[in-house]
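step=encode ok
step=design start
structure_in=
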């Protein structure tokens, strides 16, 4: 595996580049690996538009040295990106079946980091999520899954079962946000060969 020169970070549902994990990852890369190109876009609510945005940018990245990290819904997206780039991926409490889980969020939503920011999660987005599901395919690159048994949003057993080929870091306790994520940065760093 080549050293990573380009790193994409994908945030979760109702989240943003302002999430604690996104900021910690960005700060880690900036301080330890200033030569690595780090990109954490604000993803639009439409899954198709989100992946179009990502695709347009990463199409110009060197395939052999790109990698992706994703949290929650971003983990689901990261698995799709990894399939298309054949690159390593790190998934953090990844959503396994967001088409099922997000159906109850159809309608107006607020952003976690700025409750004044509102967006609509439309019924059509469920089909867009189904179209991005790569569960039936073997991983196209090495995978690391960091999963907390204490996740209050997603079932850790379902996450573990979804990533049978991944290097697994299974945490006793913890939470969906992976509070204290910074302790996992050395593992992410070495796995991705930053």
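sequence_out=
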């Amino acid at each position: 595996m080549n050293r990573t020169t380009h790193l994409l970070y994908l945030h979760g549902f109702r989240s943003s580049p302002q999430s604690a994990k996104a900021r910690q990852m960005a700060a880690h890369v900036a301080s330890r690996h200033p030569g690595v190109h780090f990109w954490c876009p604000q993803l639009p609510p439409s899954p198709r538009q989100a992946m179009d945005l990502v695709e347009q940018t990463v199409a110009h990245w060197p395939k052999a040295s790109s990698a992706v990290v994703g949290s929650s819904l971003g983990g689901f997206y990261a698995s799709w990106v990894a399939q298309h780039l054949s690159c390593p991926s790190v998934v953090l409490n990844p959503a396994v079946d967001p088409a099922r889980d997000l159906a109850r969020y159809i309608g107006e939503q607020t952003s976690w980091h700025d409750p004044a920011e509102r967006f609509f999660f439309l019924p059509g987005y469920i089909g867009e999520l189904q179209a991005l599901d790569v569960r039936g395919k073997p991983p196209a690159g090495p995978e690391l899954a960091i999963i907390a048994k204490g996740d209050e949003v997603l079932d850790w057993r379902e996450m573990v079962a979804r990533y049978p080929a991944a290097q697994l870091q299974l945490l006793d306790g913890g939470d969906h946000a992976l509070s204290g994520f910074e302790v996992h940065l050395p593992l992410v760093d070495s796995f991705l060969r930053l």
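step=design ok
step=annotate ok -> The two ends are 11 Å apart (CA to CA).
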